[in-house]
Amino acid sequence: HMDRLAEDVSNVENIDLAELQRRHRLLAAAYRSDRRKLHEATAQLAQLSAALGTQERLQSAYTELKEAHQQQSIKLQSLQDEVKKGAKYKQTAKQQELIIQKLEKLMTVAMKDAKRAKDLEAKLASTRDELTQAHEATATLKKEQRAAPLAAGEEQVKLKLRAERAERRAAAMEEEMTEMARANARELAALKLKIAEKEAQL
Q1: Which residues, by range, are in coiled-coil regions (predicted)?
Q2: What is the pLDDT of residues 122-165, one digit of tens each?
């Protein structure tokens, strides 16, 4: 209607009052319609702008939240790593403490074994002396046996038995002394090995 009315502007002089009033009403109605449409379009544009602004703010907030979450994850991972390191350090320290305690026990045993070794050495020395005396007694008995007259058969048998007993005692003592020395050497070797293993773990 607006275009048609615009085309008829040049014919205003030939239009009567009723037609002018009708056209005025049409122009007013068209103006109101266009104004309403413009208002609706403006409101819609405002809504779209507000929605766009809200979306941008949401996107910005999401980006900030995502960055904060990433930073929090990094801090959390770092904290977890520190906790793991601390736990590993405590475990290592505890293991070292246990090893040190075992080593201290072994050293205590070693000191006791050293004392026992000294006692054993003294016993071995005493046994050697007894063995020497036994050998000497055996040699003396053999000499007496050889020097005895053939007629003294009973005495000769006694001397021979004494000599044999002395030899057996000497042999037994020598075997005991050898076994004691071997046992002592084995214990000392095993103890040295244990101490070396524990020291290697420190």
Answers
A1: 62-201
A2: 766 676 676 677 667 667 766 766 665 544 566 667 767 777 77
Cβ atoms of 141 and 166 closer than 8 Å: yes
Strands (E), 14-139: none
Count other C-beta atoms under 10 Å from residue 47's C-beta: 10
- CA 181, distance to chain mean position in Å, is 45
Q: How many CA atoms lie within 13 A of 31 on its CB side?
A: 7
List the structure tokens of 36.
Answer: 């309403």
The residues, any chain, with a CB within 8 Å of residue 177's CB and separated by 6 or more, are 124, 127, 128, 131
Average pLDDT over residues 31-53: 84
Question: How many angstroms separate the CA atoms of 56 and 62, rounded?
Answer: 10
Cβ pair 27, 2 in contact under 8 A: yes
Which three-class secondary structure state does DSSP give residue 85?
helix
The whole-angstrom separation of Cα 51 and Cα 6 is: 39
Q: Tens of pLDDT along 76-103?
A: 888 777 777 767 767 766 776 776 667 6
